[in-house]
User: Fold 2-C-methyl-D-erythritol 4-phosphate cytidylyltransferase from Mucilaginibacter aquatilis.
Amino acid sequence: MLHAAPHTTHNLHHTVQKSYAIIVAGGSGTRMQSAVPKQFLPVNGLPVLMHTLLAFRKSQYTPNLIVVLPDSHHDYWAQLCSQHAFTIPHELVSGGPTRFHSVKNGLKLVPDDALVAVHDAVRPLTAPSIIDAAYKQAGIQGAVVVAVKSRDSVRQVKGPFTQSLVRDEIYLVQTPQTFKASLLKASYEHPYHENFTDDASVAEHAGHTVHIVEGSYQNFKITFPEDIAIAELLLKQ
Ligand SMILES: Nc1ccn([C@@H]2O[C@H](COP(=O)(O)OP(=O)(O)OP(=O)(O)O)[C@@H](O)[C@H]2O)c(=O)n1
Ligand SMILES: C[C@](O)(CO)[C@H](O)COP(=O)(O)O
Assistant:
C-alpha cells in the first residue's frame, strides 16, 4: 500500500547515514528507436547519464554512486567520460536482462546499514532537493517513492467496462525510490515476477509499506524521441 508522507524540509540530521545511489542504465531503449542507447544521447551537449549523476552529486547526502551498465557499454562509457572530462567518482556494475536484475546487481555493492536510492539513468531532471527529501524520509519510514498526483482524470479498463477512479487518490510513480538498504536487499531476494515494474513493487511484494515523497512533473523519464527536445528545454532553465 502507498501512504502519502508530509513534505519535508531538507536539513540533515546530526547523524547522517551512509548513502548510496544505484543509477540503472542497463536498458536498450527500444522505444527511443535510436542506434545509441538513450542514456548516452546528448542533452545540451552532455550525455543523459552525466546529467543524472550530476544531480545526485549535488545531494546533501553525497551518495556513493553505482552505475549499472551492460558489459558491452562499459568501454563506450569510459570513452564518453574521457571525451567530456567527466570525473565524478562512481562504480560500474554489469546490467541484467531486466531492470529488476540490474538493480539486484547494484545492490551487491551496498552495505546493509546504508540508505539506498534507486534511480533511472534516464531521469536527468531530478531536483537535488527531492533526492534529499527521499533520503530523509527513507531514513524515517524505510521505503519511499517519489511520485506526483495525476493531473488528468483516470479511468480503469476491465474487459468491456470502464470505471472512473478518484483522481486525488492516484499518484504517478517516478524515481528515486529510496529505502533502508537492509529492507530493499531482503526484498530483492524474492524471485523475479513480471509485475515488478519498479523497486516499490518489489518491496511491497515482500510485505513492506511504501510511502510517497512529493515529486515534480519535470522529473520525467526520457522514453520517446521527442523527450530529448523537452529535456533540453527544461535543463536550460
Ligand atoms: N535490463 C534493464 C532494463 C532497464 N534498465 C533501466 O531502467 C530504467 C527504466 O527503463 P526504461 O525506460 O524502460 O528503459 P529501457 O528498457 O532502456 O527502454 P525501453 O523499455 O524503451 O526498451 C532505464 O534507466 C533503463 O536503462 C536497466 O537498468 N536494465
Ligand atoms: C521505475 C519507473 O520509472 C517508475 O515509473 C518505471 O516503472 C520504469 O518502467 P519502464 O517500463 O522500465 O520504463
